[in-house]
Amino acid sequence: MPAGFTARSVWADAPRSLVRAVERVLDAPIVGVEAVHGGMPPGPAAVLALGDGRQVFAKAVAAQQSAKAHGLYTREIEVLARVPDDVPHAPLVAHVVHGDWVVIVTEAASGRAVGPPWRSQHLAAATGAVAVLSAHTDVHGLPPAVDRLPALDGWELLAERPDAGEVLDPWERERLGPLVAMSRGWRTWTAGPHAVHLDVRCDNVVEHDEGVWLVDWAHAAIGAPWLDTACLAADVVACGHVGGDAVALRAAKGILSGLPYEATRFVVAMIGMFRHNSLRDPVPSAPTMRAWQARRARALRPLVETLVTR
Q1: What are the structural domains, with CATH classification, of the chain?
Q2: Most buried residue, 37, 87, 199, 237, by most Cβ within 10 Å?
């Protein structure tokens, strides 16, 4: 399991009535379970082998486990019904709402998550996948990106803290002005009519046949066409590259060099968001989240150092 993610419950511990409801909607018994790890939701995720020979991927969560994750799964079901057929993704097979549980069932990918760490061929495939998605300006029913993005005012909020001098390190204190200035206006320059995933990370890109699928669609929106590609640039540094840190940094800078300057500003703002949120109170349903955000901010420092000067 990638470091910092929540330890999920297992499918065997799901209520028997829920399992029967899934079997009914799939019209086949579950005869095998292979657990899938990763992500923040605490509910089970697994590749299910069915009695009719099919394999599907299922993830479930109860509102009692995490009201936030329950809401995200419910939203993802709506989004999956809108993803264009030509976009590489795991198609929705079925969904189940049973008591306070919600289950999403999709086709199972032929491979696994592409990382961490990234490999160049997977990065190229993911870049191609998000390009196909962002070429769509005809996906109706998705909200504007500003409604799905986390607040990217992190550097400004850190600057306003009475204890800013204590929580910021020397590098951050010296460059806080440019960091704040680069982040301002994100609600305007992230806008646009293009379909975007908004949660592109190596654990949300899975191998399938000769290419990849994008998974976990709860944050999908419409916005600027470069948003997902900028997320890829950040993630290759945060999660690393099999060729080492220098290769990861070079790949990220190369990606950003081909995008509008707003993409660089977005990456800077995103790092500020991770830094600020890592200092907030713990999330009981996702106890590892704050530590994960802190590690991500630290891992991205080499990239932001190349993007910001005093």
Answers
A1: 11-107 (3.30.200.20), 120-307 (3.90.1200.10)
A2: 237
The full DSSP string for the chain is --TT------GGGS-HHHHHHHHHHHTS-EEEEEE---SS--S-EEEEEETTS-EEEEEEEETTT-HHHHHHHHHHHHHHTTS-TTS-B--EEEEEEETTEEEEEEEPPSS-B--SSB-HHHHHHHHHHHHHHHT----TTPPBHHHHSPP--HHHHHHH-TTHHHHS-HHHHHTHHHHHHHHTTHHHHT--SEEE-S---GGGEEEETTEEEE---TT-EEE-TTHHHHHHHHHHHHH-BTT-HHHHHHHHHHHHHTS-HHHHHHHHHHHHHHHHHTTSPPBTTBTTHHHHHHHHHHHTHHHHHHH---
SS (H, E, C) 220-272: CEEECCCHHHHHHHHHHHHHCECCCHHHHHHHHHHHHHCCCHHHHHHHHHHHH
Q: How far is residue 22 CA from its own chain's centroid?
A: 26
pLDDT digits (tens, 9 = 90+) for 243-284: 999 999 999 999 999 999 999 999 999 999 999 999 999 988
Find out whether 212 and 206 touch, Cβ atoms under 8 Å: yes
